[in-house]
Amino acid sequence: QKEVEQNSGPLSVPEGAIASLNCTYSDRGSQSFFWYRQYSGKSPELIMFIYSNGDKEDGRFTAQLNKASQYVSLLIRDSQPSDSATYLCAVRDNYGQNFVFGPGTRLSVLP
Amino acid sequence: EAGVTQFPSHSVIEKGQTVTLRCDPISGHDNLYWYRRVMGKEIKFLLHFVKESKQDESGMPNNRFLAERTGGTYSTLKVQPAELEDSGVYFCASSRGFRDTEAFFGQGTRLTVV
Asked: How far apart, in whole angstroms, are the C-alpha atoms of residue A86 and residue A108?
């Protein structure tokens, strides 16, 4: 059973701080890793994806991947109240191209 | 470019009735996925189509659920007969199918079985 784990939160950070979201996965054959943001009552929307070890930056967001440790994280710099949402980690395997989602971490950015 | 669209957005039905959910993927996307989020739980995979073929249906909870994708275009997910535990939000997503391409999600269908 392929599993993706995240802390459910809520994770509370003050406005302007760095929010750090973590995700671990069980399938070593996983190739691609995605971070989605989901506002309450809305559909998930992609923030960014990563498939090489190391860091990938996009604006205020940085994804970090460590395949040896089977760990992927998302850093949000200069957090804003509008960043308050549930962040979903999704892992795509090497074979079926299926996406397996973690339970999501609820982030609350306090003004 | 139109996104993934789902119909209906909400459905309230009685236990034992039948409901059919529809998903229109983004044009040209061979991969179509159905997911379900039950209240307070994570998004769970139901099944995956590649064109009109079922690539993986390991997440389908039982034989009350039937998914089709005729002609490799839109897909339907039928629940017959519906049970109370089927309530939740059903998401459809589509992707082109390459390793590093994302899945685009529809707005979801909120199903309530009473």
From this structure: 9
Q: Say whether A34 and B102 touch across the interface (CB within 8 A).
A: yes
* Cβ of residue B103 closer than 8 Å to a chain A Cβ: yes
pLDDT at A1 over 70: no
Sequence-distant (≥ 6) Cβ neighbours of residue B55 within 8 angstroms: A96, A97, A98, B31, B48, B49
CB contact under 8 A, A51 and B100: yes
Cβ proximity of B88 and B111 under 8 Å: yes
Mutate to test the interface with B, among A37, A43, A58, A94 (most CBs of B within 10 A): A43
* pLDDT exceeds cutoff 70 at B18: yes
Contact list in A for residue B97 (CB cut-off 8 A) is 97
Question: pLDDT tens digits, residue range A12-32?
Answer: 999 999 999 999 999 888 888
Are A96 and B55 inside 8 Å of each other by CB?
yes
A77-81, B38-42, B79-83: the lowest-pLDDT one? B38-42
Q: What is the DSSP letter of B87?
A: -
Selected residue with higher pLDDT from B78 and A1: B78
The whole-angstrom separation of Cα A105 and Cα A76 is 13
Nearest to A6 by CA among A108, A109, A93, A100: A100
The yes-or-no verdict on residue A93 having pLDDT over 60 is yes
State yes or no: pLDDT of A94 exceeds 80. Answer: no
- Give the closest of A43, A92, A102 to B107, CB-based: A43
Q: Are B105 and B113 in contact (CB under 8 A)?
A: no
